[in-house]
Write a structure and sequence with these properties.
Strand order of the largest sheet: 1-2
CATH architecture of the largest domain: Up-down Bundle
Number of domains: 2
Number of strands: 2
Distance between the termini: 48 Å
Number of helices: 12
Helix content: 55-70%
Order of helices and strands: HHHEEHHHHHHHHH
Largest sheet: 2 strands, antiparallel
CATH topology of the largest domain: Four Helix Bundle (Hemerythrin (Met), subunit A)
CATH class of the largest domain: Mainly Alpha
Shape: elongated
Length: 244
């Protein structure tokens, strides 16, 4: 996708998104120099202040570096960026084949964090939070299939994170969830299968409510780690909803 003029609204965001897409797609390789502020301004039909603001944001998240002489070079985001870039990469990846390994990695990381978060929640959460975790798991078991499951599952993990009381895990999980939910056509069938296979988080919730940290960790590992792993996130066959 070539750079182009943008609509006259949310201009820094539009410029930011376009340049991000060029970088994460590989059209601007690490070490390449992007056009100057003046050139970008003319090419995209915006003033230089808009371009400067967008470039500053790109530098802050580790995609660009402004070097001596005013040149702006592309960084290797695999080495310079943080988790906040995950959702942007997922959003702007054009080929599904290129996106699947990323999502597989996200799901592996989600499992690793989730296991420890569930353990901490069982150890630290108040009785009120433990009760809410149980309630949300029952809602998950009764909800119809579809996008609503994604929001409800996110709510379940938010309550578990609240009980764990670890801000670093919270921020990491935010980035992981945004990446997983970027492409519903891929993530929704996977989550539907995962929830069915794990009895809709109820074993996790029961262990947390009982204050059994090790059982909570084990239930989470079983829920979030499929028997066959994540081989390029092959889309699972849809299973009928059932109860354990």
């Amino acid at each position: 996708m070539a750079l182009r003029a943008v609509e006259k609204r949310s201009l820094p965001d539009k410029v930011f998104e376009q340049i991000t897409a060029e970088i994460v797609s590989g059209r601007y390789a690490p070490g390449a120099t992007i056009p100057s502020e003046r050139e970008l301004s003319e090419l995209m039909g915006v003033n230089r202040h808009v371009v400067r603001e967008a470039v500053k944001r790109l530098e802050q998240i580790g995609l660009l570096k402004v070097v001596q002489g005013g040149r702006t070079t592309v960084l290797d985001f695999r080495q310079s960026a943080g988790l906040d870039l995950l959702a942007l990469v997922a959003e702007h990846a054009e080929a599904v084949e290129a996106l699947l390994p990323l999502l597989a990695g996200v799901l592996e990381m989600r499992a690793g964090i989730g296991i420890d978060v569930a353990r901490l929640c069982a150890q630290r959460a108040s009785s009120d939070v433990k009760g809410e975790v149980l309630e949300v798991s029952e809602e998950l078991a009764g909800v119809a299939e579809g996008v609503e499951l994604l929001a409800l599952d996110q709510r379940f993990w938010q309550r578990v994170l609240d009980g764990a009381g670890n801000l670093a895990y919270q921020l990491a999980f935010n980035s992981l969830i945004r990446a997983v939910h970027t492409r519903h056509a891929i993530s929704l069938p996977w989550i539907e299968e995962e929830l069915s296979r794990s009895d809709y988080r109820r074993p996790i919730a029961a262990a947390i409510a009982a204050g059994d940290a090790e059982s909570a960790a084990t239930a989470t590992r079983l829920a979030l780690t499929p028997p066959g792993g994540y081989p390029l996130l092959a889309k699972p066959a849809k299973k009928p909803r059932g109860r354990a």
